[in-house]
Structures are given as C-alpha cells and as structure tokens.
Specification:
Blueprint (H helix, E strand, L loop, with lengths): L4 E3 L1 H5 L4 E9 H4 L11 E10 L3 E15 L6 E15 L8 E2 L4 E3 L1 H11 L38 H10 L1
Length: 168
C-alpha cells in the first residue's frame, strides 16, 4: 500500500472543498535514496488538498532529517530539510509544472521525494565563518589556532586578488 496515494474523487466532484492530510513515514518508504538521509529517518508530509475546477492544489510542507559533514572542517552535521509544498495536480495536464491525477488518485510521493532532494544542502557549513582545517597540519582552526606558516600565495592569482580587493 502506498501511504501517499489519495483518492480525490469526492474533491473533484465538489470544487472549492479541501482535505487536510498528515503522513508519517520513513525515507525508505518514500523511496528516498540518498546517503545524507538514513533509510529509517522519519519523513513528515503535512498537506492541504484543495479542489479546483480543473484539478487539486496541494499546499503544506515536507520535513526530513539529514546528516552530512561540514565542507570546510569536516565535523559531522545534522539538520532537518523543510520543503514548502505548493503543487498542482490535474487530470488533463495544461501546465508543465502539474503532476497527473490518475484514476481519481494523486500520488504525493514523487513530489515529496523531489522537494526533499532539492532542500538538502549541497555543501553544508557548520557555521558561516567556519575557518576550516589547516592544509599543513590538519588542525581544526575553529577549535585552536594553527601555528603553521601561511602558505605562499601563487602570483598567478594576484590579478584576481586585486579585483577582489576593489570589489570589497
């Protein structure tokens, strides 16, 4: 049984009606296959289905916890991806952005999967001013100052460094 498959026949018969839904499932049940989201991670889909004359508008949110490492200092990170939902489902698709209504049913799983994947951070940071790790000794510069000599600047980048200074 698909937990995010809903029969909307009654909604389609009566435009301007709505239905609230909340589904708690795991990432595996959603078909979310990403190393940043554990298979047993709880995914929450909260939505309002509102009927129109030509389809159903789905609004709400999808939440899924994630884990990764900071791109600069490599410390483990955790967070929750919260994706806003505002999607259109139609029987006769007239919009490139619409999802299909098949046999009076809508399947929110592809939409929820897509929104979570888009909301996951591509290159997370533990904080905006993360100092990263020293390329020489490997010390985490956020925890302790490094006594290594500053690496020599490559002169080939001097023109870009000058341009950066002008922009700042």
């Amino acid at each position: 049984m698909k937990p995010l498959l809903f029969n909307v026949a009654e909604l389609l018969r009566r435009p301007a009606t709505d239905r609230d839904v909340r589904v708690d499932l795991t990432a595996e049940e959603l078909g979310l296959d990403d190393a940043r989201v554990a298979a047993d991670a709880p995914v929450v889909v909260v939505a309002r289905l509102e009927s129109l004359s030509d389809g159903v508008v789905v609004t709400g949110r999808v939440e899924a916890p994630w884990h990764d490492t900071c791109r600069r200092c490599l410390v483990p990170l955790e967070g929750v991806a919260v994706a806003p939902v505002d999607e259109l489902y139609q029987q006769h698709i007239t919009s490139d952005e619409a999802f299909p209504i098949v046999a009076d049913q809508i399947d929110l799983a592809p939409m929820a999967r897509e929104l979570v994947m888009l909301e996951l951070p591509m290159a997370p940071l533990c904080r905006d001013d993360c100092a990263g790790i020293c390329p020489t000794c490997g010390a985490n510069r956020n925890e302790q100052p490094c006594s290594c000599a500053t690496p020599k600047v490559d002169d080939r980048w001097s023109a870009l460094d000058a341009l950066r200074e002008q922009l700042n």
